[in-house]
Amino acid sequence: MSAPESGSGTGSRASASRGARVLTVPAALLLLCALPGAAGAQDWPSRPLRFLVAAGPGSSLDVVARVIGERLRDAFGQPVVIDNRPAGGGTVATAAGAQSAPDGHTLLISFNGPLSLAPFLYARLPYDPARDLAPVVVASTSPNLLAVHADLPVRTVAEWVAHARAGAGRLTYASVGNASSSHLTMELFRSVAGFDAVHSPYNGAPPAAASVARNETQAVFSAPTALAPHLQAGRVRAIAVTSAARYPLFPDLPTLAESGYPGFEAMLWNGILVASGTPGPLIGRLNGAINAILAHPDARSRIAGAGLDPAGGRPEAFAALIRSEAARWAPLIRKLSIRLD
After folding, report:
1. pLDDT-derived band of residue 336, with 50, 70 and 90 as boundaries?
2. I need a surface site. Which of 27, 66, 129, 315 has the fewest CB within 10 A?
3. CA–CA distances in Å: residue 153 to residues 38, 149, 162
């Protein structure tokens, strides 16, 4: 507020200013009360937070959830209970998040499968991502790695395609679940590269990666996290990434685009959401807190150590990502006639 002017009118203007301040206080209180959930936002959180994870323990999603959950506990002074629900390709956890009370005490971390792909795969999906969930923030992104069993005579994408073609459909590939990014990325790759292979879905990335390590399946597209111990032990071999450019965390791996399939890109992403109807002030507090966590060097290091790129941003950007990915993958799902009912 500017200082009062000097002169004969000073007293009257000061009096008017004081009157304006007196009127402003109850007006502000009325406005605060009129804002949905504004009063509740001041008291939140009033009990432990439940953090639904649409993947199993040891998955990349689980790593991100635990890094963020630990720091949310410190920021808000309430325990954060991790609740892993990998069933249904992540749709079980996502449905639980959509059906939770819209009070900010239940968080969900989900990914492109349940959020952008599932509406085109199920006739009776128990939630509508656009209607029933409120995006908070993108948590992390990464490409898939194309990994094969280490005993295969395959060290390049070209060698894998030749090997798969020679197998005449006898090779089996793993995925982290039906109609997951892992599954659809291989189906897209099969369609452009011209080879056959049998799909073997697993309930999450760790068992899918383990199946390749045991040679129960011969290849998988997966996030780096679950593959890491098998790569280090020499049981599987990564031969490409699905990003448009080489991925900084795996700079020696070529992209599929530079391996003979220009334009091929299939990124993984995940993010945090709450039930639709959660008050805007609570979403704002969560967004600010999680952005701060994702900018912290220790959190970034831990997430990067899992092979992921910490993200962040506004809720609106996350909502736009969900919509754009749905528009991108829906034509492939329809072309392949993939249904999960």
Report:
1. confident
2. 27
3. 62, 9, 10
Q: What are the chain's domains?
A: 47-142+268-336 (3.40.190.150), 145-259 (3.40.190.10)
* Alpha helix segments (H runs only) across the chain: 10-34, 38-43, 60-76, 91-98, 112, 129-132, 157-166, 181-193, 205-213, 224-232, 280-295, 297-305, 315-336
Could you tell me the two tokens for 320?
């736009």
Torsion over CA of 176, 91, 264 and 146, rounded to 10 degrees? -10
Q: Give the range among 115-119, 177-181, 233-237, 296-300 with minimum mean pLDDT.
A: 177-181
Decide: helix, strand or coil at residue 253. Answer: coil
Cα 254–Cα 185–Cα 168 angle in degrees, nearest 5: 90
Q: Which residues of 158-172 are buried (b: 16+ CB within 10 A; e: fewer)?
A: eebbebbeeeeeebb
- Tens digit of each residue's pLDDT (9 = 90 or more) over 271-308: 999 999 999 999 999 999 999 999 999 999 999 988 89
Cis before 79 (ω within 30) = no
Helix axes 181-193 and 315-336, enclosed angle (nearest 10): 50
Pairing of strands 106-111, 49-53: parallel
Provide the greatest CA pair distance for the chain. Answer: 98
CA nearest 291: which of 41, 68, 50, 53?
A: 68
Q: Can you tell me the distance from the alpha carbon of 263 to that of 252, in angstroms, rounded to the nearest whole number?
A: 19
